Predict the structure of Alpha-galactosidase.
Amino acid sequence: MPITVKEPYFILETERTQYVFGIDQAGRERHLHWGKKCLPEDFFIPEYEDENSNHSAQDEAQQEYTAFGGTVYRECALKARFSDGCRETDLAYRDFRLDGDTLEVTLQDRHYPLAVTLCYRVTPGCDILTRWVKLQNSGTAPITLEKICSAELSLPGEQPYAIHNTNGAWGGEGLPAVQTLTSGALTFESRRGTSGHNHAPYLLASRRAGEASGEVFFAALAYSGNFKAEATRDLFGRTRLLLGLNDFDFSYTLKGGETFETPPVFCGTTPGFGEMSRQMHRFVREHVLPRAFAKKPLPVLYNSWEATGFDVSCENQMRLADLAAAAGVELFVMDDGWFGARRNDRAGLGDWFVNREKFPQGLAPLIAHVNALGMDFGLWVEPEMVNADSDLFRAHPDWTYHYDTRKAHELRHQRVLNLTREDVRAYLFERLDSLLSDYNIRYIKWDMNRPFSETGAENLENPQMLWYLHTQAVYELVDRLRAKHPDVQFESCASGGGRADLGALLHFDEVWPSDNTDAVDRMTIQRAYSLLHPVKTMRAWVTDVGGPNKPTSLAFRFQIAMQGALGLGGDLTKYSEADLQLCRENIALYKEIRPLVQFGDLYRLADPDADEYLCTQYVDEEKRKSVVFLAARGTRFYKKRMAVRFDGLAPEKRYALCWEGENVVKSGAYLMEVGLPLRIRGADFNRIVRIQAAE
Ligand code: DGJ
C-alpha cells in the first residue's frame, strides 16, 4: 500500500522513499520523516519541554503546514485574516480521507469556519509525491487569505544544504545559482505576472551531491504566475522549504461557501541529480503533460521568426516552406507579423485578424501549400497583449490593467490585457477559436512578451487577486481551446523562457526555453531546463545566430538542437546546397533517434561549463539502444584527453558502437567503468554516437 494510516501516523511510500507525519497531543500535524524507508512502528512524535519566556515549543515543532498565529514566529505557509479583524489562525486536526493513492488530512480552525485540507498523492511506479492544499470557508463572512503555500517541506538532519535555483535573465534563462544555506532564509520569486526569466518556481536542496551521488531533495511548484520559493534554516539547523503563490501584493478573498485549491508541488528525494531528472522526466511525461500529445513524438518544426521577422508574406513563407519540407521538416510555423497592422512591434497586437495586405486571400493558400508539401501548419499568437496602436485598444481602452491616475508603462510598445474580465476572455476565445475553426492549424505558439505594470483591475472587488486570476485565465483559455480543437498542439513561450515551468506543462505540450539560440549558450540553458523538465518538451532550433562573437558550425548547431525537440529557424533561402544537405542528413538522423531523445532516460555525463565539454546520453527503457552527444567548443590548457564513461547501460549486455571511426563491441560494464578514450580537438567538436545491444 503506498499510503498507510495508523492514527496518529500517516505513512506515504513511493517506490524507494518514505514520507511520514503524525498528529500530536495538541492536535498539530507534525512532520516526522522524508527519506529512505523505515519500519512504520518505529516512529514517535517528540515533545519539546524546554519552553521559556523567549522560546516557544510551538515555534520549534516541524509542521506539515505552518499557519501564522500563537507563538509561531518562523516563516508561515498560511496567513489568513477573518472578517472581525482577527489575523491569526489556530488549526487542529479534524479528520482524514484516504482514496486510493490520495490522502487528504483536514485541519479545522478552532474558532472560525476555515478548514485546511492537506492533500498528498503518491503515483505508483514513481518516486514523486504530489502535494497541494484546499482551503474552505464554510461560514458566510469572507476570509482574506494573505499568504498561501502549496507545500511546506522539512528536510532531514541538521547539516546545511546547498540550495539551487536560477539567476537568469532574458537570453540567459536557467543560469544556475547555488548557495549554502547556513542560517536565515533564501527567497526566489517572481513579481512580474509570469514565472519569469530570473528565478524558477522550484527548490533543489543537496548535500555532497553530484549526478549520481549524495542527497538531493527537490520540490517544484506547477505554477506560471507570481511564485515564492523560500528555504529557511532555524537555530537548530533544520532546513525547511516553502513553495506557493507569492504573497507580494497578493490576497485572495474566500467568500462563504467557497474553496480555494492551490497549484500542486511535485517533490521527491533521490541519490543525485541524474536520478532526480529521470524521475521527473518520466513523471511529467506520464502524469503532467496534456494527454493528447504526451506519448507522441513531437514533430521537427520550422519557425519563420529569425528568417523573416515581422516581414511575413505569402510568398516568402511559401518559399521557406518549400525548403523546409525538402529538408524533412514536419511542421511549418509562421511566427509574428501575420495579423492586424503588424509591420513592427508598435502596432497590431490584439487584432487577431489576418492582414489582407500580406495575405490577400487569407491564410488558406499558404496553409494549402504547406499541407501539400506534407507538413502541418502552425501559427504564432500573443493573446494577453495589446498595442495602443490597434483597433482593439481604440475600441476598448479600458481592457488593459491600468490606473487612471498613473502613466501606462509600455514595454515593447505593448500593454497587458485584463484577463480577469469576462469580456476580454470571451473576445480572445472567439478570435482564437475562429482561427482554429476557419483554418487547418495544428499548432499554436502562445507568446507573452512583457511583465505586468499598473495592475489596476476595477472589475475586481479585490484587485490583489488579479495575479492569480490572470494565470488561471491563461490556463482556462488554453484548456477550452484544446477541448474544442483536440488536434492542436500548444507551445508556451514568453519572450523565450518566461513561462517555462511545470504549471505551463500541465496545459501546454512544450515550451520555448530561451530566445537565445546560440549553440554555445544553449548548452548551459538546456542543461538547466533538463533538471526538472523532460527534454521532449524543450523546443530547440538550429538558427543562423551563431552568436555575433562566436559563430559555430551548422553541424555543431544541429548537434545541440537535436538534444531536445528539434526545430529549424534559420533563413533557408540563404543556405548553400551543402548546408541544405546537412539539414537533410541531420533531420533524417534525428527522426531515427527521436524516440530515444524524447522518451529515453537522460544521463548528463559531463557538464558543458564545469567540464568544458558536453556529454549527454539517452537510453531506452530496455537498455538496448542509446545515443550519446559529445560537444565542445574547444578545450583550454591542452586538456583534450579523457575517457568517456557511459551510463545507464546493462553491465552484462554487450554493446556495439562506432567510436572515432572504429567499430567497437564492449560490455556495458566496461563502457560504464573503464570507458572509451577520446581526444577532443579543433573548434566545434561534435559527435553523435549510437549504441546498440549486440545480442
Ligand atoms: C518572442 C519569442 O520568444 C520569439 O520566438 C518570437 O516569437 C517573438 N517574440 C515574436 O515577436
Notes: The mean pLDDT is 97. Residues 518 and 546 are 5 Å apart (CA to CA). Residues 577-599 form the longest helix (23 residues).
